[in-house]
Write a structure and sequence with these properties.
four-stranded mixed sheet; 262 residues; 14% helix; 10 strands; alpha+beta
Length: 262
């Protein structure tokens, strides 16, 4: 893989981020189907209406940020985690518990602010919700990253098939669950923070052609399900979830994205 920035006119298919070594794949962008239609009986109201959505080309990390990479960031940036006034929740106080996991597992117990701080350090950003969904479902709007059949959950780290420590799995495990662009574990292992504020009515606006992200909210979007869950509905690529951005817990993580300039 090239360690040089992508060409201004012809981006490479793969990109190795020079700061942290993140391996990234090009997602060409363009129009794609976002959300769920009547063919999915498990859809939630905030996944509708199914609509044509458009995003610019971007790079998506093949895997979630690992414990090893996050530890390097914490050391170099002297990052101590954030304590955010007014939260009133123990979730925001669990800084440092990620250190207990193996270095090739995805970092967890990180909140949205931690994820943003890492991305700023690494020269990356969090993916938007639309980018995350395109990378997970492709242009065919797959139900799961690997296709439309749950296949007894054999391709995903979930409650029935937990990792070696009874929770997460290494970031490159479950290769049979890779998505249409080659991303690993966009279903299961950890919920992944996205850049967007959550808006349960956003798809109505998107369906009218206004793709601007929500400008405010109380929660940030997470996608993908986690090892902790036991119902297939949550592992669909269209499923949406949100929580207060200061929350840290055992099943939240993230992966980076990068803008492509053509």
């Amino acid at each position: 893989m090239s360690s040089h920035p992508p060409s201004e006119t012809r981006p490479t298919r793969y990109f190795l981020n020079p700061k942290d070594g993140t391996e990234m794949v090009l997602v060409p962008g363009g129009w794609f189907w976002m959300g769920s239609g009547d063919e999915d009986p498990e859809k939630s109201g905030d996944e509708t209406p199914r609509h044509l959505h458009r995003v610019a080309p971007f790079y998506m990390a093949l895997e979630c940020v690992t414990v090893k990479r996050f530890a390097a960031f914490v050391k170099e940036a002297r990052y101590e985690g954030g304590k955010y006034p007014g939260t009133g929740s123990g979730y925001s106080e669990r800084w440092g518990e990620w250190r207990k996991d193996p270095e090739d597992h995805p970092v967890r117990y990180v909140n949205w602010f931690d994820a943003r701080a890492y991305c700023d350090w690494a020269g990356l950003r969090l993916p938007t919700e639309a980018e995350w969904e395109l990378a997970a479902r492709g242009y065919e709007a797959l139900k799961y990253p690997w296709g439309n059949n749950w296949k007894a959950g054999k391709r995903v780290c979930w409650d029935k098939r937990k990792g070696p420590g009874g929770a997460t799995a290494p970031v490159f495990s479950h290769p049979g669950g890779a998505g249409p662009f080659g991303t690993f574990q966009q279903s299961g292992n950890l919920w992944e923070w996205c850049e967007d504020w959550y808006d349960g009515e956003a798809y109505n606006r998107y369906a009218r052609g206004d793709f601007s992200p929500p400008g405010s909210g109380t929660g940030r979007v997470l996608r993908g399900g986690s090892w902790y869950l036991n119902y297939p509905k949550y592992f669909r690529g269209a499923y949406r979830f949100d929580i207060f951005p200061e929350y840290r817990t055992t099943y939240y993580g993230f992966r980076g994205a990068r803008t492509v300039t053509l």
